[in-house]
Amino acid sequence: MDTDLLKRLCETPGVPGRENRVRDLIMAEIEGLADEITVDPMGSLMAKRNGPGKRVMMLCHMDEIGFLVSHVSEEGWIYVNPVGGFDNRNLFSRRVMICTKDGDIKGVMNPGGKPVHIASPEDRKKIPAISEFFVDIGLGKEAAEKVQVGDYVVMDEPFLEMGDKVVSKALDNRIACWLGIEALRAAKESGHECELHVVFTVQEEVGLRGARTATHKIQPDIGFGIDTTLSCDTPGVPKQEAVTVQGKGFGMHIKDGSFIADIALVEEIEALARSKDIPFQRTILAAGGQDGAAAQQAASGARAVGIVVGTRYIHTVTEMIDKGDLIAARDILSAWVAAN
């Protein structure tokens, strides 16, 4: 498994509407793997491999959750507006990076208020709103000369391998970018009948926006939404709410808040997985959505499924996946394309 590529994908910053650096990395990786590579007006990267068969689309969103700078005070405190969903409890005392047109600047994020030594019991119970958090880059009043409204902010934490696990920020959804690249690589090696479109979409975390415009253009017959999903196989969560259990294979995504998978396509993929000894587990997510919904609802509609990888501690800097689950997702996508 090429963890170096996954590491580079995860550590490259790119929030909704600011995916260009991730796109550039992917574009370099897929050179020679597609018959046609284009970028649409919203910024989604489209890689097409020709074929006489049905039109198949794999959707892999590039954006990670983060922030846009909303205000820089005279004193140099930098305030932010979220692009994507955060649990504010996970934002205390975070190292961050502000990406500006002149370069990246390290900073630290904290909420306004008293430190623990002088905080009252009531202060310690409070979970601040995102509007109360600020970034300190250590430059005081000079910050206004370096940072402007609209610059973007990402978490700044390293990629780690821990036994059979990988831990990083932005595994949601750079694992899909990795899978999309690997699918193109496998398709070139194996050959295929389908007309294959692997699309690295923008702005999924704020409403599947890039997927909607890309699917409107391509109008697929079949769509694969490739993404993370929850893996709550950890203390404090009832087993019936775990969604996935790590180490049991890729997730065959049946339903979430945005779409219901085509059951015949689900069963076809499951039969192929069994024939190839590729482990999988069915998944249902009570809420939330993913790019597969956009494919399903494009133009006159498409058959759609989700291929997902269970992820612990999602939307944090400690997102964790099992390498075996990621390999299973890679293998089923490669096998399906080769058979179609």
From TrEMBL:
Its cofactor is a divalent metal cation. Keywords: Aminopeptidase, Hydrolase, Metal-binding, Protease. GO terms for molecular function: aminopeptidase activity; metal ion binding. InterPro entries: Peptidase_M42 (IPR008007), Peptidase_M42_aminopept (IPR051464), Peptidase_M42_dom2 (IPR023367). Binds 2 divalent metal cations per subunit. GO terms for biological process: proteolysis. It comes from the Bacteria. Zn(2+) 2 binds at residues 172, 205, 315. Belongs to the peptidase M42 family. This is Endoglucanase. It comes from Pontivivens marinum. The lineage of its organism: Bacteria, Pseudomonadati, Pseudomonadota, Alphaproteobacteria, Rhodobacterales.
